[in-house]
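Cont'd.
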Amino acid sequence: MNADIKESFEKTRIAGSIAASALDEVSKIIKPGISTDKIDSICYEFINDHGAYSAPLFYRGFPKSSCTSVNHVVCHGIPSDKILKEGDILNVDVTAYKNGWHGDTSRMFEVGKISVKAKKLIKTTYESMMKGIKILKENVQLGDIGSAIQEHVEANGCSVVQDFCGHGIGQAFHKEPNVLHYGKKGTGDKIKAGMIFTIEPMINLGNYETKVLNDGWTAVTKDKSLSAQFEHTVGITKDGYEIFTQSKKFS
Ligand code: MF3
Ligand code: CO
Ligand code: CO
């Protein structure tokens, strides 16, 4: 591994581990009756206390430090005084920026007791992200990743959102390549050792279509069906990959 790649992996590992630990902190307080603003302030404080910045804050005008996407919100939900209630599911997405490098991750959380179908959606979404990750190594094609995810999602009767994708990440928050969560095996660019990108499938219980609300950020399912998402930041090596946003407490 050359020195530049080694340095980029080391720095992303640090930013990624702060982001993952921020989600561990959030997991301790999620229960019916708390607001998404409370979640956001825990993310803000944890990330700042670890010498990092929250990359979403003021990114293209985004007003908060995290995205909190509840129930039929697909992604980019804006934290607010909205109170979580028993049975809600939500994604919390955080990005830490430290020493010039980014680590981006998100997870699903259950508020109290949730429905069987919500549990199944969350399980399918997590498994699909891991199916996309487990095949990673130099020269795998981007279409191979999308197809591994899509196949698993559709086999479980759910649909893959097409309007948002994973992305290269590093000194920039979002950069090339676009990592689509659907596609055909044997198509698309070959990934190379040293590349760092996210895999972050958004999966719907109903139709794949989304729309963005008037706030300019909040993306929701058009049919109001539940949506789930997980995200890891990964680095590619000659024979495999490293997950930079793995938590010791959550697998
Ligand atoms: N963290 C999101 C992603 O996975 C991006 C959020 S941008 C924001 O790429 F402005 F909405 F915060
Ligand atoms: Co991302
Ligand atoms: Co993210």
